[in-house]
Structures are given as C-alpha cells and as structure tokens.
Write a structure and sequence with these properties.
The complex is a heterodimer. Chain A is of the alpha+beta class. Chain A is built from 10 helices and 12 strands. The chains are: A alpha+beta, B alpha+beta.
Chain lengths: 325, 409
Amino acid sequence: MKLFTEIYNCYFQIVDEICKTAQAAPITQKEMISLAARFGFKESAFLIVPRMINNWNLLEKVPEGYLSKIDNLEVLPLTILQKRWLKSILMDKRIGLFLDTSQLKILHTYLDKTEPLFEPDDFYEYDRFSDGDDFSCPQYISHFRTLLKAIHQRQYVQIHFYSHKDRPISIVCLPCRLEYSAKNDKFRLLAISKKSSGLRQVETINLSRIHRLTLIEQYCEKKISLEDALKNTYYKEPVRLLITTSRNTLERTMLHFANYEKQTKKLDDHHYECLIYYNRMVETELLIEILSFGPTVQVLGPESFLAKIKERIQKQLQLIAQNET
Amino acid sequence: MSEFQELVKSFAHIRDYVRDFFVYGFKTREDFSDKSGRTYDNERRRIESWLSEYIRSDYTQKGKHISIALDSNLLLTNPLYRVWKSKSFTDNDIMLHFFILDILQDREARSIDELTNEIYANYDVLFEPQLVRKKVKEYEAEGLLLCEKSGKQYHYLCADSLTYSIPAELPALLDAVRFYHLAAPIGILGSTILDNQKTTNHVFLLKHGFFAHTLEDEILLTILTAIRQKRAISLTIRSSKSQQVQNMEGIPLKIFVSTRTGRRYLCLYHKRGQRLANLRLDSIKKLVLMDSVPSYEEYQHILSQNLSKVFGVSFGNVHTMDYIKLTLSIHEPTENFILKRLEREGRNGRITRVAENIYTYEAEVFDGNEMIPWIKTFTGRILYFDSNNSYLKRKFYQDIQRLAAMYNL
C-alpha cells in the first residue's frame, strides 16, 4: 500500500473525465484540453491530449471528434489505504457531528474487516487549548447539522447567540462556511449578513455561543464568494518583520507563520524581512505570537501595529520598574 | 533534449523543494547548491506547473526567488496535495487501469487469460498475460480488485465502490470527508476520496492549519504502521540547524503535534540512550520498519508517566525539574479573559489569586526553556518572573531589556 501511486494521479482523473464525457457523444480536442486544464496541472493538456489521441487506445476517432472505448466504468472502488483512513476518522470525537448512531453502525459494518490507519491516541496535541467545544452536546450537534444543511442549500438562517461579552444577539444571515481551528478546537460559522445600508458583512459566530437557530424560507440565488469578502477584510499594509537568525529564529518563524500568507526576503546572512498579511480578526493573536519570539523578531511596521507592540513593552517596563522601587 | 515531464517517480525527491518554496520562499537558484542548476530548473518548473496560481516570483540582488504564497485560512483544500497526485506512470499502466476496471464493472469474475483476451477483443490492444497479471496483482494488493479461487484457477473481480456499498450514508460521509481532508492526519487520502466521488469541499475552512504537514505524510504513514504493529524503527535524520545526518533506532510511541508552531514530532524511546526523545518529522529523511517489540506497552507506560511534566516536546537533559512562577497583573473583572487564557493554555500549571488583581501561575516541567515563548505572550502584564533555573530568569529579564533597546523605549 503506497501513498504515492498513480492511482491517485490527477492524469487518471482527467482521462476518466474525458472518457465519461466521450461516452454519450463525441468529444473534441478543445473539450479535452479544457478538461485537462480544469482537473490537471498547468501543462497537463499538452502532455495528455496527444497521448489520448495517439497512444492510449482509449478513444475511437469518429467524424465529429472522439468516442470513448471505456463505456462501463462508473465509480472506482476505494483502495485499502483510503478505507483505513475512513475507519480512522470514524473513531474521531467529532464524527458524531456528521453521522448519527445508525449511520455509524452501518459504516462500521462496511469497514468491519478494515484496520484503522491511526487511532486518536496516536497523536498528542500538546498545546491545544483545553476549552474546546463539546462535540457530543445534542444542541451543538443539531446546530451544526442545520448549518451544514443551510450551506448546502444556500438557505438563510436566523441565529440567536451570545456575544463575547455575553450580550444576546439575533441576526439573519447566509451561512457560508464552517471554520475549524485546530488550536482552539472550536468551530465557528462564517456567514454573510446584509446591513440596512445594503452592504454585506462577514459575520463570525462561535458555534458554542449559539442558543437558537432556525432555517428561514429564503434562499440565495446569487453567487457570493466568502473568501473574496474575507480577503477584503485584510489590511492593505502587511506586518513587516525583521527576523534575525540567532536562536534558530528564522526556521522557527518560517514554520510558525506558515499558516499566514507571507513573503520573505534575505537582507544579509543574519537578517531577513518577512511580510505577513492579516486582518483585524487575527491582529491580537498575531501580535502576541510575535511577542513570543522576544528580541529576535522586530516589528518594523505598519505604524499602528508597531504602536501596539511598543505599548505592551512599555507597560512591561513600567511593571518591572515599579517592582524595583 | 528530452520532453519536459510534469510527473515524478519519487516523492522524497521533490519534497524538500516544495518545502523550501512554501515554508521559506526566499532561496535563489544558487542556494540550492547541493543539486545541479539543471535539476533546480526542472523541479522549479514542475512546482510552477502544479501550483501555478500560488507561485510568486520576486527579484533581489541575489537573483530571482520563487515562493508558494497561500493563506491557509482562505482555502477549501490544501493545494500541496497536488504534489501527491503527480506520480509518473507508463502507457501500459494507464491503459491497463482503464481496460481492466472497465471490463470488471459487470461484477463477473475473470481469469487472467480471459481478461487478456477481452482487452484485445474490446480495445484492440494485445498485452502479454504476465503484464496483465502483474497489474491485477498490484490492484488486488491495493484493494481495488478481489481474488476468488475456482478450482485451480484464480479469478478476479472489481471491489464494490462507496456508491454501491453505502448509498444512503454517502452524502453524510462525504461531508465528514470534506472536513477531515483538511483537519485529519494524512488528509491527502480524504482528498483522493473526494476525487473518487467527483466532488469537492465547499463547506469547511481550517484556521491555524499547517499545510506543509502533508509533505511528511509518507514518513508519518510508516511511523503509524510501526505504532499499530508495535515495531521498532531505524531512521536517518538530518538536523535543520546543523544539517548533520544521524542514524538511530528506537520504539515509536506517539506523534506530538503543535497546533501553534506548525511542528510535528515523533516521540520515541531511544533504546541506546535509554530515554524518551522527540524528533521533528520534517527532519526524518529515511525510515525502516524493524522487529516487533514484545514489551511495547511498557514503553507506552513510561511515556504516559512523563507526559504531565512536558510543557512542549523536551524531556529535559538534567535530572532537576525547572520550577516556574509567573506573577501577573489581571484587572478583575474586565481582564478575566487573561485568566481564561492562563487556564486553557497553561497545561498543568497551578493558578492562584494572591491579591486583588494579582494572580500567580506555577509549574514544574522538564524544560522551562520551552515555556518562555508562551510566557512572553503575557508581555505587559508580568509583575515577576521567578524560577529555580537562574539561566531562565536572567534570560527573561535580559530579553525585556533587549526589546526595550530594540524599540528605543
């Protein structure tokens, strides 16, 4: 059982798509190129299409294009490795959000003879926050599934929840994504609401803070890109860091900030400049992450971010000075 | 000059290039000096082809450097999974894949000779039966085909698909796969299941996701096999600091994962050193499974006994424990969120309210140095930092002074 095998290769996916398209009606070369561009890499079309036509005997030339010789193949079975992975996810504490007891029973029967690839105890997330969501809470599960349904159906919901300051809030919004944080061990809903001014706004709501949720008979017809809306919340000016190489800081920062979009430039053998793109929602988190590196990482800008860093250090200096006197 | 190929034979070969482009992104052609310039050009072109929309090129005095720029918070899948979908194959591989699976869709079992004849009859391609047998055996091992013995002959049939086996449960299962392909270990397998079902994820996003982890999945798979089979391993590691290569043997016990720093470690019992150790997964270059360990549970027990004293991944080098005491200014009730932070992030530490608006946090750990970055996140609130380890105490206060000097405060 190998992970790196041609069975999972995207060329096989492209060929499968081409064959399926060419089962009912002839496919043209242009259509093949378009499928290769959609499912493959940048240069896949140049490498696949000539071979489909000349080498692989999977197509038959007809006046209107090409017909597939592969006309029975439907869905491929799963490999043992894929089944073992499925068996492992059935053991995860969050699986009850997706599957009820009877569904889980059927899946366990289906995977009866399959060994799990890993078990939850094989992993130890030593710095995960200890106040994660309760994934076994019936109300939480119910809200999760309602939101999942709303996202699939592009249906609006009315949500009653408590803010971070425990104020009760009620909004009507279009659920777009469920965001999971591995660090917080929490799900958050990312939704779009419409303000009275007509402007769309991205709403972020912790699932554990929702106390009532109802689907409403309103559907979204338009295509709305939440990712674009989120991107718009990013500050134009990234945080600019000066990273020194002492204490292995370069390596540590590059890994630490790998979950942000970043851009790094070598200045000299001991100094690097790194730009990190961020938004208001992660500003405080990013700030304390940078502070955790101490004097081996210096914030150069933007001014507002630099001022916040300086304010914390100034406060710290004052506390030390007070204690000395 | 031979034609450019997007596909590669070996994952290990490309792994370091992708990692360098993604995690670092500042290296120029000259920085990849351990390989020829031609090799660099080929690998760069492949990576540009696989991840074209995420490639960023910049120019400095030292030359052009390529980086993979992606914001994991905004992506519905891990683009680095594409690297796993680039295994090279031969013309026979792809033809036999489609011919055999197409023929066997009728759920009838066939012998190798029958398959060979049908391939010729249906697709007009004549293969040697040995070639067909080799592919069939390979697919049987992968689980795509099943084997039945009838008399003296073996017959092969196609295994059932998910669509056929669990049609009613499939939609809910696919939602789970959409989530776990981002959040679970070896999520690439979830991505291939979504490919198999011709669907994608449009529901889940991952915050604090470290996409580069997938580059270690082949290594992780072998470690997990060793853990499941309770076997020892032999491994070759290369230190990221010194670049020194070292061989060692040990008993793999757990994978330590940092949800904050993007690092994953193999926790093993190092038999020769008679101690527990953690090794960065990305430093492991080669791994070989060895004999099974009869007393495996004993080593797991040693680990579980030590776990509460490890703040991060270090089991310490000296026998004394580091005692850490942090006194913090937390204004009640407006700054209770800081108290909550201490509770949820402080692992096995004790929190005490010593006076109005003043709290202490105390812990004994193997290696107090690991706590320092976390402690520094409370900069601006620390009244005292105390430790039995004078080095840590000195370092903490010196760092504050260095920060002040750095920002001219």
